[in-house]
Structures are given as C-alpha cells and as structure tokens.
Design brief:
Blueprint lengths: L6 H13 L48 H11 L3 H10 L5 H4 L6 E3 L5 E5 L4 H6 L6 H11 L14 E5 L13 H18 L3 E5 L1 H8 L4 H4 L4 E3 L2 E6 L2 H6 L4 H18 L1
Parallel strand pairs: 2-3, 2-4, 4-6
Antiparallel strand pairs: 1-3, 5-6
The structure holds uracil.
Length: 267
C-alpha cells in the first residue's frame, strides 16, 4: 500500500508517540494469531544435501531469560574509571526504558565532590539535555545546595556536588521505576559511588532509598542519617515534592544544615 506519509512526517509522528510514553508498536485492531492459518515456510535456496553439515537440533524451548542483574554486576565491576562506567551503562541492553529515551543521562557536577546526590530518573528536560536535574526540580536542587555554599560547578571538591540518578533513562510517562528495573541498575550505581568516592551521599526521594538502602518510605526516612556502601547517607524529600509542597521546605532546610554539619565533622 502506498502511504501519504513521507519519511520525515513518519519520523516526527513516531517521536511524538515516544514523547507520549509509547514503548511498543502495535496495530489499531487486535489480531487473534491463534486463529490465523499457519503461513507456509518460505522456500529457501538450500545447498545440496551432500554439502550440509549435520543438522543442529532446534531448541525445544524458548531461550532462557537473561539474568540482567548478573550482567550488570559483571559490566560494572569491569569499569575501571568513570568513562568506562559511562560506556558500560550506555551499552547495557537489559532495561526497556532505554528504548524510549533520547539520551542516557549519567551524571553532572564535579567527580571530585564531597557530596554525591542520587535522584530517581531523568524527566523530559533531562532526557533532552542529557544531564540530570536541569528542569524545575533541578533548579530548586541547585538553589538548595547554593544555600549551604555548594554547587555542581564549584571547582573545589569541598564546595562541589556531583549528581546522578538511579535510572539513566527517562521512564515512559514519568512513571516510577519498578523494583526489577531498579535492581538491575544497582550494580552500576554502587560502582559509580566507588569511583566517585564521596564523603557522603544524599538520596532524593523513594527510588534511590530503594536502590541504596533497600527500602522506601521517604517521609519517615528523611532527615535521619543511615549508612550504605561504607558512606553516611541522608535521605531527603525530592525537590519535585518540595515544588508541590512548599511547607516541606522547612524540613529540607534542616536536612541541608545536617549535611553541612556532617561535612564539618568529617574533615
Ligand atoms: N528528577 C530526578 O530524580 N532526576 C532528574 O534528573 C530530574 C528530575
């Protein structure tokens, strides 16, 4: 069938669907494939039987599911520096979210920073820019840390922050990442923390609490120091929540002061 849609139109339409969160290509009407006549196999030009190697047995069952957590562990352990880690994450094919994302969003800030911030996942702005926390929530995060004299552009490690996310790909419709999706990215996150070696970690919201501490409940957890991977860890409410709930900024300010005090104690 001849289509009225040109290549550029079709590409723009497809990008729009992805923007809306589509992750699978399906038809307009369901097809009952069990009711279809089996299609006869296509005739292939085969070499004469005498030249064939003994036939390999077709597998009786579907290929076994890949263990993506194990693959992620292997790939993360092999990454000797941050560039290698970036390449390993970009090459990882275990997570469906990658298919709908424009960019793999790894990190921003100073890798020598004393403070490493772990957020949830890129949103639309971050997906476009290829950097974490550049939208409204990110601007608030910058203001929050500026209030204690720290920032992602600070050249000195004592004043610097380094920012990453649990998920390097934008979730479709900005949904929460599932426990399985988080689990397969944890090995990369743990290696990321080892390579940056910050003095302390800040977890922004529930997904990083799940990834790093193995449990959620940010409203209960925020403000209380914990420990993971040998580092002090402070859970905080996510800046996107603070934008919706300005009254919670008071507690966030208390958490920032606690971070500032901890950094003083650790020097
Ligand atoms: N929210 C996050 O958790 N991370 C980002 O990068 C942007 C918004």
């Amino acid at each position: 069938m001849e289509s009225a849609q040109d290549w550029h139109g079709a590409k723009a339409l497809l990008e729009w669907y992805i923007e809306l969160g589509a992750v699978d290509a399906i038809g307009d009407a369901p097809i009952d494939r069990y009711a279809l006549e089996p299609t006869p196999p296509k005739p292939t030009k085969s070499p004469p039987a005498s030249t064939l190697a003994p036939a390999a047995k077709a597998p009786a069952t579907a290929a076994p599911q890949q263990d993506f957590v194990a693959l992620a562990k292997q790939a993360a352990a092999a990454a000797k520096d941050l560039d290698a880690l970036r390449a390993a994450i970009e090459a990882f094919e275990g997570c469906e979210m990658k298919r709908g994302a424009r960019n793999t969003v790894i990190a921003d800030g100073n890798p020598a920073a004393r403070v490493m911030i772990i957020g949830e996942a890129p949103g639309r702005d971050e997906d476009i820019a290829g950097k974490p926390f550049v939208g409204r929530a990110g601007q608030l995060l910058d203001k929050m840390f500026a209030a204690i004299g720290m920032g992602r552009d600070a050249p000195l490690s004592k004043d610097a922050i380094y920012i990453t996310n649990v998920m390097p790909w934008r979730p479709p419709n900005n949904r929460d990442p599932s426990a399985d999706e988080i689990a397969m990215m944890v090995p990369f996150l743990e290696r990321h923390v080892q390579l940056v070696a910050p003095d302390l970690i800040v977890l922004m919201g529930n997904s990083p609490c799940q990834a790093v501490l193995g449990r959620k409940g940010i409203m209960r957890m925020r403000g209380t120091w914990d420990e993971a991977w040998g580092k002090p860890v402070m859970p905080m409410t996510h800046p996107a929540y603070l934008l919706r709930t300005p009254a919670a900024k008071r507690e966030a300010w208390a958490d920032l002061l606690s971070i500032q005090a901890k950094l003083r104690d650790l020097t």
